[in-house]
Amino acid sequence: MSVTLADVARAVGMSASTVSRALSGTEKVNDATREKIRRVAREMGYEPNQVARSLTSGRSDLIGLIVPDIANPFFPPIIKAVQSRASAKGKTVLISDVDEHPADEIQRARVMRKRVDGLIVVSPRTPVESLPELAALQPIVFVNRKVDGAASVIIEASEGIQEAVEHLASLGHKRICYLNGPRRSWSNSQRQAAMRAACAELNLELVEFGPFEPQIQAGVRAADLVHSRDITAVIAYDDMIAMGLMARLTERGMRVGPDISVIGIDDSPMSGMAYPTLTSIHVPGTRAGATAVDLVLDLVDHPEDAPKPVVQLETRLIIRGSTAPAPPER
């Protein structure tokens, strides 16, 4: 026989309503009582009846998470953080990968919203004119894109890019290339603007190529463009493009570091395994995911009066082996 809520209540000598409040995380139960009830419930092997809880509370205890491409190294740290934080709050996460198809995003969100208490949408590709339709599916939190009238967790690229450009300037680089990301990417527009501002401030020449998809093969294609110009340093939209670039430049006889410096963005686990190791701008994906869960659950608990905050997280440069002093001018 499975352990029931009444069994736990008898074991701790409290009412079933008190036990129910403690296990559901309500603030109406003090910390010591809540911890005692949860400990006894764990020891007895109690598992809450989610269907019954949903019927009683009107909630599913589910959070919907939508990402553009689950295979892109930028997203797994965010996904893991969302799952970890949600689990700690007694919630389960449903994940949908739209496979870089912007047209699917709103439809997926509509379907998920019928089943979940709130939505988290990471790096949405939905065109700006359609964002109000997506933002209307409250409670909803956007990660890595600012949306008017909605809660957002913004990963601010300007500080990390400023550090990257200053790093290259200190190494003597005067002509820098930026490899743009997807045309539909809000992040790319922010990174592009930060690149232009930093290069203008330091009086450096900026060459731009792209747009490119966030794929290694895109970096391979970009390498031939970079090779054809007198460029000594490159900052790529993300680590995958940067690693494809490095591989192709090496094939063409260029030494990454001594002949050309390369910087990626994301500081993905692969950046430390590349050869040479990839200098990259660290993006706080773990913090972004955890913060998004806290925001969406606050919106779920206070749907009428909860503010729609915009939380900004900073980026920073991680220096590794792919950047070096500029080669002598030819």
Automatic annotation (TrEMBL):
Domain HTH lacI-type: 3-57
Alphabetical keyword list: DNA-binding, Repressor, Transcription, Transcription regulation
Claim: DNA-binding is one of the keywords in the record: yes
Record has Transcription regulation as a keyword: yes
Family annotation (InterPro entries): HTH_LacI, LacI/GalR-like_sensor, Lambda_DNA-bd_dom_sf, Peripla_BP_I
GO molecular function: DNA binding
SMART domains: HTH_LACI
Organism superkingdom: Bacteria
CDD domains the UniProt entry points to: HTH_LacI, PBP1_LacI_sugar_binding-like
Protein name listed in UniProt: LacI family DNA-binding transcriptional regulator
Pfam families tied to this protein: LacI, Peripla_BP_3
PANTHER family found in the cross-reference section: HTH-TYPE TRANSCRIPTIONAL REPRESSOR PURR-RELATED (PTHR30146:SF148), LACI-RELATED TRANSCRIPTIONAL REPRESSOR (PTHR30146)
